Amino acid sequence: MALSFYVMGASMGFSEEQPQELPKPFHKTTPPLFQEWNFDQSSLSGLPKGFTQAFGGSSGKGEWSVKEDSTAPSPPHLVEQRLQCDEDWCYQLLIAEDTVVEYVDLSVRLKLNFGTPTGKAGLAYGIQDDKNFYATVVDPGTSEVVAYVVKDGQPTELGREVLIPRSGDWHSLRIQRNTIISKEFTETSFDNHLILDVYDQSFKKGKLGLVVIGDGGFSFDNLRAMELMTNRPLSRPSAY
Predict the structure, then answer these.
(1) 84-101 b/e with 16+ CB inside 10 Å = b?
(2) Residues 127-146 pLDDT 10s
């Protein structure tokens, strides 16, 4: 009886001291970026909410301004830039705040306001500051898309390609920056047609925005940014 009591007590003690499940590890992660700006929440005649502006060149005059336009892709508001430039190279940047990303799918709806067809307009990415960034722009004067890397305020052309715009006032411009192992590349599409690939590794992470170069007027709507997943390994290879 004493032995059975001892066994029963040991059994009861064992059941009360069963190992408990350990808490699940907590991994702090940053969700991928997905953001769209249609400028409808911004006040008229000023900078769009959540953006700052910068410029390059000494004689370029122009400012970004939210306007009302019932013909905008997402009415009623859009953002407009009318840049007057007496130099060979000047530009205006509109930079989205808190949007630092490396590999990105960035697109915008673009209207070419033909007044002086010497200007170019499009997307800026990898923005380090007001003098170091990438720019992919539409040149209505030559009917081309041109890609630049700007360093210390001076542009280097990465590539250009002739485009055939669809009929209508509004067009779409899209870049997708990605990597294959260690090779950085950016694909450019205009009106949903892939037309240009460029390769450059000057800048990694950077801010995003819009850019106007030269002398001309342009309207923008539906700026959209989505962070891309890459095929880079998640960890270093084994040492053996």
Answers:
(1) bbeeeebbbbbbbeebeb
(2) 999 999 999 999 988 889 99
